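Quick one: structure for this chain?
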Amino acid sequence: MSVFKSYLRRLLQDLKDIKEALNAQDYEKANQIIGTLIDDTQKGIEDN
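Got it. Here's what it folds into:
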């Protein structure tokens, strides 16, 4: 369960960072964060 909570904390921080980047109209940074989230999620799925 602690691994899942750790994942959720990281996800929450990434979502806050995306929101901040979008509010600042820094679409490149937001896109980069989203790309990292997608890559990490894909790797996590493939590991199981």
